[in-house]
Amino acid sequence: MNEHEMKQRTKKFALRILDLADALPHTRSGNVIAGQIVRSGTSVAANYRALCRAKSRADFINKTCIVEEEADESCFWLELLIDRDLLGARRVQPLLKEANELTAIFVASRKTAVSRPARRNRIENRKSKIENQ
Hints:
By secondary structure, this protein is mostly helical.
């Protein structure tokens, strides 16, 4: 999946989260969970966009960790919705599946980025007699 497709996927996830939050009952627990799920679910998309503009490898890894945490937090709130039966599992389960998939993608991305050797920042001219003597 390329960067544009992942931006679209995370944005679609955020929109689905907003729709879900709007459908929650206006009870104390419904309002608390709605606020939390909106923050974490929309944060996945917003922070993925920031990740795409990372200025360095370290910045990329840091931003990937943030997206991973927000996706995992979204899983938590969705699981809580299912456990409390505030909307019914059939409505929440597809979003939980997507949140778990996004979490797995960002965990794998972080692990790959961490395991790769750091690139040299300087430009090297392999034919230079000065540098390669």
